[in-house]
Amino acid sequence: MSTFQELGLNEELLQAITDMGFKTPSEVQEKAIPILLKTETDLVALAQTGTGKTAAFGFPMLEKIAIDSRTTQGLILSPTRELCLQITNEMKQYGKYCKGLNVVAIYGGSSITEQAREVKRGAQIIVATPGRMKDMISRRLVDISKIQYAVLDEADEMLNMGFKEDITDILSHTPDHKNTWLFSATMPKEVANIAKNFMINPQEITVGNKNESTSQVTHEYYLVNSRDRYQALKRLADLNPNIFSVIFCRTKRDTQKVAEKLIEDGYSAGALHGDLSQNQRDLVMRSFRNKQIQMLVATDVAARGIDVDDITHVINYQLPDEAETYTHRSGRTGRAGKTGISMVIVSKSEVRKIKSIERIIKKQFEKKDIPSGIDICEVQLMSLANKIDNTEINHEIDPYLEHINTLFETTSKEALIKKFFSVEFTRFYNYYNKTKDLNIEVSSERDFDTNENTSRYFINVGKKDGYDWMSLKDFLKDVLELGRDDVFKVDVKDSFSFFNTNKDQQEKVLSFFNDFKHNGRFVNVEVSEDKGRKGNRKYRGKRDGNFGASRRRETSGRRSNSQSQSRRSSNGSTGSSRPRRSRR
Ligand code: AMP
After folding, report:
1. What is the pLDDT of residue 337?
2. Are residues 385 and 505 both part of a single domain?
3. Which of 148, 349, 477, 563 could form a disulfide with 453 if both were Cys (CB 3.0 to 4.6 A apart)?
4. Inside any domain, residue 584
């Protein structure tokens, strides 16, 4: 292992590194810094967040630019405002002994005039989000025509967020001979295309394997009924009294709902999603960093920039649509050499996705049980005992001690301890005493695969309409707004096809295709009653535009019955409220 001196960094940077307490270079720094210092080259670096990649491109950029010039020479593009601010902050710290250095952050939601003014003062390095950057270029408020180094940080996420055109546009305003350094946690096709189209013979480095999760993170999943998801979340939080976590939901609405319920139930929680104003988001992030919030409930997009080193748990309240997104989520924990746990709460119909995530992260999940009420009581009790043991005595209580001592004059130490702990124990015991076991079992390997929890459909388009399995899957995924893994087992025949989704998507699929025309023709989708070959035979040869309309009505009638039943049962269950958790 080399030292920062051996990597060839100058005195100013080494001094800042000492001040920051960095002892040895991280793997990505060890690999990237010598290449970027010694050669003028493009670079593709595959590295997770939290591996020290900001310094991996930051140190060489600071070393190579001319600080005594006021021209903008370095441009760093990042997906979110939060990340943009973090990078700016880090760069300022790294360059604190580089006299005359001006690093400016450019991002949406803040005064463009003020940002333009800062740039005008002479910014050697600009750190920007793509949207605002493009805006400022078009208003001629920045000049990036003399950029020598362009960094695309978290490139996969920028593309995921739809910034491809903005990035292309921004890069078109930079000189051709600049060096481009691309950093990405994963390497989907879109990122590889950017590397191919915008970079010249880039050198490649990989920290860990592509898409692989960091070794510091262990992965667990908990199998429950969908309706018990929230109860399961609470138990996981109660089992870890010192939890400091990010909880991921799929939608802004769920994010807000889960955060509100947690707050109502006495947890220190907060929501982070795109419907909040910038001020609200800043406030929540500040509280989270200060650890006034223990559980941050967030959407994937809003959580992109979170760079908090001590996160103990990532909880996937729902799994993401794309398996790759899981890598980003779990990368929020296990940072800066610490260990972390990524937990997933799954229903039976989602268990299949665990397998595809395992393939991507190249790690096994451990299936664990949601703790029972009594397990939680025990953990809470022991946590309280430890807390008391570690508590420093506050002498402000001295004046009251005489009165308290009189009250317990005849109580033995043993009885006093019992009474004291019963206060906390009874609170949890009363709540958890009558709650049920939330765990369910997968009945067989089939649950991991398809059948029981999936629906198979007939659709009246096929090869004759120009589809193969891939293009039909893409078509279905797009029109139904489903994730890549949500449409599977696509089997295209000449004039019709079959495909599967999880059963909980069935209603969405059927109602979407209830009255859907494509290229002037009705596209019909029917549930195929038999999951396998028998089902295929049943529909062979039928492709008339009105196929099965009456059956579809029957099916939807059955659906609404079962729906109202499940509503009844979910109203009837649970409902008990938890003891309020003491706020920190
Ligand atoms: P990053 O991957 O750039 O977001 O960095 C994650 C965290 O690790 C940040 O808080 C950095 O300040 C910190 N860090 C970066 N490099 C090192 C290092 N060599 N030693 C210790 N901490 C580091």
Report:
1. 63
2. no
3. 349
4. no
As a whole number, mean pLDDT of residues 412-440 equals 85
Q: What rounded mean pLDDT belongs to the chain?
A: 83
Question: What is the mean pLDDT of the segment spanning 340-346?
Answer: 94
Query: Which protein residue's CA is at the shortest distance from atom 6 of ligand 1?
Result: 50
What is the spatial distance between Cα 351 and Cα 510, in angstroms, rounded to a whole number?
Answer: 23
Query: Which pLDDT score is estimated for 446?
Result: 47
How far is residue 112's CA from residue 136's CA, in Å, rounded to a whole number?
8
Based on the structure, what is the number of domains in the chain? 4
Q: 48: Cβ below 6 Å to ligand 1?
A: no
Residue type, 240: N
Over residues 412-429, the mean pLDDT reads 87
- On whether residue 439 sits in a domain, the answer given is no
Of 48, 84, 310, 335, which is best to mutate to test ligand 1, by the most ligand atoms within 8 angstroms of its C-beta?
Answer: 335
- Ligand 1 close to Cβ of residue 230 (< 6 A): no
Q: Same structural domain for residues 12 and 155?
A: yes
pLDDT of residue 305: 63
Tell me, using a 6 A CB cutoff, whether residue 19 lines ligand 1. no
Instruction: Label residue 79 left, alpha or beta by phi (over 0 means left) and psi (-120 to 50 means alpha).
Output: alpha
Same domain, 315 and 386: no
Are 152 and 120 in contact by the 8 Å Cβ rule? The answer is no
Nearest residue (by CA) to ligand 1, atom 14, is 52
Asked if the model's pLDDT at residue 298 lies above 90, the reply is yes
Q: Residue 453 maps to which CATH number?
A: 3.30.70.330
CA 38 – ligand 1 centroid, Å: 22
181: Cβ–Cβ under 8 A, 6 or more apart, which residues? 32, 36, 42, 43, 45, 57, 149, 150, 151, 152
For residues 354 and 276, membership in a common domain is answered with: yes
Q: Clarify whether residues 290 and 341 are in a common domain.
A: yes
User: What integer pLDDT is reported at residue 208 of this predicted model?
Assistant: 63
Ligand 1 lined by 27 (C-beta under 6 Å): no
Q: Are residues 303 and 177 in the same domain?
A: no
Domain of 88 in residue numbering reads as 4-206
C-alpha triplet 92, 95, 101: angle, nearest 5°: 80
CA-proximal residue: ligand 1, atom 22 (nearest): 22
Give 83-122 pLDDT, tens digit per residue.
899 999 999 999 999 999 999 999 988 899 999 999 999 9
**Residue 30 and residue 164 in one domain:** yes
Pair 26, 83 in one domain: yes
